[in-house]
Amino acid sequence: MRFVGQSLWACLVLGVAIGTTHPVRAEDRNPAPARSGDSIAKDHLRRARQARSSGKWSEAHAAYTAAFEAIDATSVTEREAAEIAGELGLCELKLRKFRDAAEHLAWSLERRKALSPEQQRGFADGLAKAVPFLATLYLSVDPPDAEVFVGGKSIGRPRRTYTLFFEPGKHMVRAQAPDRGEGTQTLDAQAGTEPIMTFQLLRSAESSGKGDTPVVPKRSSAPPVARPQAPGQPASWPATLRIAGIAATTATLSVGSLLMIRATNLDGDLSERRDGLNGGATPSGSRCFQAADRPACADLLRLRDERNLSAGVGTALLITGGVIGAATAASFFTDFSFLGLTPAQDRIHASPVATGREIGVMLEGSW
Fold first, then answer.
1. 161-166, strands of its sheet edge to edge
2. Omega into 143 within 30° of 0, i.e. cis?
3. Which of 101, 204, 234, 351 could hold 93 in an S-S bridge, CB 3.0 to 4.6 Å?
């Protein structure tokens, strides 16, 4: 009797277990494949465009940003990446996020060959509207593999030249490279300006070599006794001209170098825009005769004039600085004793100098 009861109890438990077992669904046997990365980016882009068409700019900005951040992890084409960046920039321009808009529009226009002419014009117009609210910095770095930081954050892949956008205010720009020194400069950004900044990082060996103390052999004769000047005697005019010559040489060479750097940047931008306008055709195939391309051609002419002006003025300043520097250097070896001034041989003395790294001549005296 006990055995029969135990058998009935086992049957009941088995029946309940079978009754509560869920049937296997077809979708459980064949689960849906996970969405690929490019489909996720396209979903974000589709939501962004729907929100933009409905006037929901904040929602569109969030979706565009998600699509742009997914570019590196997806297999979207260069054309799709350029479109996403350009449309994100136009959305940010609508929200008055001028710096973000300028950066994304410039990023898109760097890939202008993948865009249609209509997209190129639209994104270029958007960039032109954002730039007046920002400071456009033209940055040159040597060596080209130096990493650049703005506000403590890296700005991306190292390059020789950069075009950066800053909101008005003070910003810290830093550059560093392996086995080289580190440079830091402060930018006082003002809206609508185009400052130029350069970094030239020295090698560690060069910077350490500057601390070597030169060995100066003793002269066999005693140094000449300085002649006392009469009280109230005015400074000689050659000394004043030499100081002015050094200042003029430094100023003209510095400004000339900066203008030449700017001309180089403008020339690169001009070439990219010309290639984008011609669509890969030869220079003889320019499309500037078409009415639809005349605004772009006017922009090319403006860039060409700016490049030529910067190059011409920069070259003239470099030549002028070289002439002034040569004249100033020659004046140190000119004897003005016939004018009643201190004889040259009493003012300047040349002595050989030798270190473990170099050999040369040291000039000392007063001028």
1. 161-166, 135-142, 196-200
2. yes
3. 101
Task: From residue 35, give the alpha-carbon distance in Å to each of 26, 39, 41, 149.
Answer: 19, 6, 10, 36
Q: 276: which 2 tokens?
A: 């984008």
| R_g of the chain, CA atoms, integer Å | 35
Torsions phi, psi of 231, nearest 5? -60, 135
Amino acid present at 70:
A
User: What CATH class has 134-206?
Assistant: mainly beta
136 DSSP β-pair partners: 165
Q: How far is residue 75's CA from residue 38's CA, in Å, rounded to a whole number?
A: 6
- State the pairing for strand pair 161-166/135-142: antiparallel
- Find the helix or strand (DSSP H, E) in which 172 lies: strand 169-176
For the entire predicted model, the pTM comes to: 0.47
Question: 113-122 pLDDT, tens per residue?
Answer: 999 999 999 9
Tens of pLDDT, residue by residue over 187-206, are 999 999 999 999 988 876 55
CA distance 242 to 240: 5
